[in-house]
Amino acid sequence: MLSRLPLPLILLLQVITSLLALHNTAFQDEGLYLLAGQQIFLNWMGKTPYLEPYGLYFSGYPSFYPVIGGILDFLGGLEAARLFSLLCMLIVTTCVYFMTVQLFDRKSALIAACLRRVSVVSWTPGYLRCLVFLFPGAGGDALPMGQ
After folding, report:
1. N or C terminus of the chain: which is more exposed, having fewer CB within 10 Å?
2. Is the per-residue pLDDT at 6 higher than 80?
3. pLDDT at 13
């Protein structure tokens, strides 16, 4: 039982620190991504065209990732988008743990999960984490993968 306790504790720490920052107002870049997602989604539905060339300055796949945030913002507001980001963060940390167990051992996996937890992206408040929706660990996952 105690051998399986550290990973849930790491994930719990991620949840607690993220939920503390959940009720802030939207950061400028976060609001831009959510607005872009809403505009692109409305364009897909045939409601209104968007004229802004988001592909010129958004990273990743600009016609898809912001749309997830825009749809979640329609459905549940800013908190829904941030909770989805938290869910993605927890999935990435768990994947880092199990991938490292397969490649190395359990002790290395705990170190990798802890490093993933304290990476810059993980400590970023929820309003900035929204910018990297499906890949919330893009900045921190290279560390365990490069070992």
Report:
1. N
2. yes
3. 86
